[in-house]
Amino acid sequence: MSAELIDGKAVAAEIDARAGEVGAELAKEIGRAPCLAVVLIGDDPASEVYVRNKVKRTEAAGLKSIEIRKPAETTEAEAIEIVRGLNADDSVDGILVQMPLPDQIDANRVIGEIDPDKDVDGLTDVSAGRIVLGKPGLRPCTPAGCVLLAERALGDLSGKNVVVIGRSILVGKPAALLFLEKNATVTIAHSRTKDLPALCRTADILVPAVGRPEMVKGDWVKPGACVLDVGINRIDAPERGEGKTRLVGDAAFDEIVGHAGWITPVPGGIGPMTIAMLLRNTVIAAATRSGKNLPADF
Ligand code: NDP
Residue 209 C-alpha to ligand 1 middle, in angstroms? Predict the structure, then answer.
């Protein structure tokens, strides 16, 4: 048996297009396109690329984007002022502050200022509380992308055993809660978990979100299981030439692909879903803020 590859890039393109379609319908009702504001502080090269991609895909879907760029010397008070300005701007539906922020700025304080109804990254305390309480709200993008791909592959997730490896606020914890919301039976593993390989073998759905290249080995994966590899790790690739690198996930793809049921590749799996869910959240935020309904299947 060979695993079915989950093509996150194709699903993400579909979600982008649908967000654009639903956003265009909404724009007719509210008189403007749903709008995402992205704040980039400093000159981190990776952040530059992420922000460029976010803006490009937002605009390609026909949604509006605003880009606010500030120098690395920006103070915490100035960053907070930017967020407060965007909160007060009624034409802005979603606010994303690109991480990491320069050292002098406490990221938690800045995120804490974001209006939860515009928190399209799903990172505020209120957004986290809404997940725990099962209340409607904006869900964090990468975990929401994992759940969506799992549903596409397996259908109903009810009763499935899910093992999430990693307990970060950004990925592991919200992913676990979102799978729980789908009535899966969820275990969160982390660096202190005992006999991780044995635990992983119980999983119908395994979600490594660790940041350790190819940590999950072939014999950690139950035959037929679904592996959603969140990890993105850059490793040396001397076989491609001197100084070359390549991206790998947290799962040893080549060891797993022969017997898993489904697997997401890296790159091209979970990664593209993150921006797709961001666009979707922007449309959801625009509808919620203006008291409009969205199609039931969105
Ligand atoms: P963090 O570093 O915040 O969290 C890593 C988690 O992995 C921690 O909970 C840690 O446990 C756990 N861990 C570390 N070592 C082990 C181990 N040996 N065994 C079991 N668990 C371990 O990372 P993030 O959650 O932010 O990101 C995880 C990965 O996902 C990274 O590769 C990142 O690049 C990628 N990522 C991908 C995204 C995408 O769009 N596809 C978006 C966001 C992240 P403990 O808490 O005990 O220390």
Answer: 4
Architecture of domain 28-116: 3-Layer(aba) Sandwich (3.40)
* Cα 117 from Cα 127, distance rounded (Å): 9
CB 209: neighbour CB atoms within 10 A?
27
The CATH number, out of the four listed (3.30.70.1560, 3.40.630.30, 3.40.50.720, 3.30.2310.20), of the domain defined by the range 141-272: 3.40.50.720
Closest ligand 1 atom to Cα of 212:
32
pLDDT over threshold 70, residue 131: yes
Catalytic status, residue 98: yes
| pLDDT confidence band for 1 (50 / 70 / 90) | low
Helix (H, G, I), strand (E, B) or coil at 161: strand
Kindly tell me if the per-residue pLDDT of 66 is higher than 80.
yes
Give me the mean pLDDT over the 247-267 stretch.
98
For the cut 70, the answer to whether the pLDDT of residue 135 exceeds it is yes
Ligand 1 atom showing the smallest separation from residue 210 Cα: 7
- Given the residues 93, 117, 121, 204, select the one marked as catalytic: 121
Among 54, 64, 118, 222, which one carries the catalytic annotation?
Answer: 54
d(CA 131, CA 147): 14
Q: Is the pTM of this model over 0.90?
A: yes
Distance of CA 91 to the CA centre of its chain: 24
Q: Give residue ranges with CB within 6 A of ligand 1.
A: 142, 165-168, 170-172, 189-193, 196, 209-212, 230-233, 270-271, 274
Which atom of ligand 1 is closest in space to residue 269's alpha carbon?
41
* Phi and psi angles of residue 103, each rounded to the nearest 5 degrees, phi first: -55, -30
